[in-house]
Design goal:
Number of domains: 3
Radius of gyration: 23 Å
Structural class: alpha/beta
Shape: globular
Number of strands: 27
CATH class of the largest domain: Alpha Beta
CATH superfamily of the largest domain: Alpha-D-Glucose-1,6-Bisphosphate, subunit A, domain 3
Helix content: 25-40%
CATH topology of the largest domain: Alpha-D-Glucose-1,6-Bisphosphate, Chain A, domain 3
Strand content: 15-25%
Oligomer: single chain
Bound molecules: alpha-D-glucose-1-phosphate-6-vanadate, cobalt (II) ion
Length: 553
């Protein structure tokens, strides 16, 4: 066998962030850059000889090249088999599904998620463990430590492997099994949701529009909505995956999914709209002229979970990331089930799901999911909403002879539970020093801020969120500054761990509104006072020179 040990030197910047290692494509194209990180993964996980690996990515620029390199390195590092998605494609939730279904030792997922792609765009890589979830912090830290002392990597010298045809081949004694990237995932969805009811809904005049944003969910959406649910062809858009996402920013929010937003807020709008991101783990839910915040979406799914066959037995518990609104907490309290508050990033949900403590998880950043896999799952959330809409339509057909809209479901939810008015303001690509300065200034102000009064708001406490994992006791500190007000409102400041340019500062704003007469208000209007307080106490404009956010969600 033609295995080479290639001498190399550490790069020192291979620290995984919130979700894997993300850099500009040219960084990954430097000689040895990808190889160093992959070898650091293999050195860390020390898979037994002959182990099976899952491999795939979101199809962005450099995906194919990276897959070829990783296959040859897996062969040289003693793996016995690799399951790789056809064409090198696997959405993030589909990869999680494959790892679990075929019980592979782990998986490597190539994606920079919602970050733009192309030769000057972003690329990324992350490792998922045998439970199908992102490696926990202790593993990513060990990978980083190995990347700082690496001196060689192992790679098989071989011809490229055919990735476009389903089937098996052998490189250096390792089996490469090219699998259909969609079918296992689509089967899993069909096992969780009432496809008959959704089929009925989508063929009863109810119109939906799903925007795959030229990213990985295109083939999944075609199989599920068009083939299995028989929806009209115009129910999906931008379903051809492109290496640069058509030049777009595959982030399903009101800013970047503007093509869909124009349709949903236009004349003759469909009843339901949804979009997913580069790697298929995020979702945005829209009704006719109506936007559902991700935090509210989690709460609605939790409150209505029993309508979906896969969740008919109920929900064991809910987990949400700290910056996510407490809307789900209110549902958990009503259902008498626990609600956990974790740091940002899906890797913190894995232990809770593995231990059976939680069924549903969510993040304000357009991430929702359950214990069916160990990643957030965009299409899963879309199907859950369709299942809820279909089930409510069926019961209404007998009783009220009316269909409930997304907006009506949301309004009824708020009337029952109250509304956690919520918004996130992102300041992207700030000079790192200025962004760090804002955080340091806030830290230094904790004493002075505690008890301070701003109009109708009084600050109760300030802290820097830290988390002790209830299952394995591991501690994560420095997870975001919380300004907590006496009426339950909050402002959270956090630096992003997924950006590749300068620093991104996120400000999360939340106020509780019990009054039904105020529920129709636009979030920016309802939160105006809190927004002002956030700018005042952070000295953001003075310190960064920015007077408005880059993106508001
Ligand atoms: C962001 C989101 C976080 C999410 C992460 C990965 O991280 O805020 O909630 O888990 O992206 O999502 P950060 O550190 O930039 O705030 V994905 O779809 O990019 O894998
Ligand atoms: Co993503």
């Amino acid at each position: 066998m033609n295995i080479h040990s290639i001498p190399t030197k550490p790069f020192n910047d291979q620290k995984p962030g919130t979700s894997g290692l993300r850099k500009r494509v040219p960084a990954f194209q430097q000689p040895h850059y990808l190889e160093n990180f992959v070898q650091s993964i293999f050195d860390t996980i020390a898979a037994p000889p002959g182990a099976t690996l899952t491999l795939g990515g979101d199809g962005r620029y450099y995906n194919r090249e990276a897959i070829q390199i990783i296959l040859k390195m897996a062969a040289a590092n003693g793996f016995g088999r690799v399951l790789v998605g056809q064409g090198g494609i696997l959405s993030t939730p589909a990869a999680s599904c494959i790892i679990r279904k075929y019980q592979t030792y782990g998986g490597i997922i190539l994606s920079a998620s919602h970050n733009p792609g192309g030769p000057d765009g972003d690329f990324g890589i992350k490792y998922n463990t045998a439970n199908g979830g992102p490696a926990p912090e202790k593993v990513t830290e060990a990978i980083f430590a190995n990347s700082k002392k690496i001196s060689q990597y192992r790679i098989l010298q071989a011809l490229d492997i055919e990735l476009d045809a389903i089937g098996e081949s052998d490189i250096g004694g390792m089996q490469v099994q090219v699998i259909d990237p969609v079918v296992d995932y689509a089967d899993l969805m069909a096992s969780l949701f009432d496809f008959n009811a959704i089929h009925g809904l989508l063929n009863s005049g109810f119109r939906m529009k799903f925007d795959a944003m030229h990213a990985v969910t295109g083939p999944y959406a075609k199989e599920i909505f068009l083939n299995r649910l028989d929806a009209p062809a115009d129910s999906v858009m931008n379903v051809v995956p492109l290496e640069d996402f058509g030049g777009g920013h595959p982030d399903p929010n009101l800013t970047y999914a503007h093509e869909l937003v124009e349709i949903i807020y236009g004349d003759n709008a469909p009843d339901f709209g949804a979009a997913s991101d580069g790697d298929g783990d995020r979702n945005m839910i829209l009704g006719k002229h109506f936007f559902v915040t991700p935090s509210d979406s989690l709460a609605v799914i939790a409150a209505n979970a029993k309508l979906a066959p896969g969740y008919a037995k109920g929900v064991a518990g809910i987990a949400r990331s700290m910056p996510t609104s407490a809307a789900a907490d209110r549902v958990a309290a009503k259902l008498g089930i626990p609600c956990y508050e974790t740091p940002t990033g899906w890797k913190f949900f894995g232990n809770l799901m593995d231990a059976g403590k939680v069924t549903l998880c969510g993040e304000e950043s357009f991430g929702t999911g359950s214990d069916h896999v160990r990643e957030k799952d965009g299409l899963w959330a879309v199907l859950f909403w369709l299942n809820i809409l279909a089930a409510k339509q069926q019961s209404d057909a007998q009783q009220l002879k009316a269909r409930q809209s997304v907006e009506q479901i949301m309004m009824a939810h708020w009337a029952q539970f109250g509304r956690n008015v919520y918004s996130r303001h992102d300041y992207e690509a700030l000079p790192s020093d200025a962004a760090n300065g804002v955080m340091q200034h806030l830290h230094a102000s904790f004493n002075q801020l505690t008890g301070a009064q701003f109009g109708r708001y009084t600050i109760k406490t300030c802290d820097d969120f830290s988390y002790t994992d209830p299952i394995d006791g591991s501690v994560s500190t420095g997870q975001g500054i919380r300004i907590l007000f006496s009426d339950g409102s909050r402002i959270v400041f956090r630096l992003s761990g997924t950006g590749t340019e300068g620093a991104t500062l996120r400000i999360y704003l939340e106020a509780f509104e019990p009054d039904v007469n105020q529920h129709h208000l636009d979030a920016q209007v309802a939160l105006a006072e809190l927004i002002k307080i956030a700018l005042q106490i952070s000295e953001l404009t003075k310190r960064t020179g920015r007077d408005k956010p880059t993106v508001i969600t």
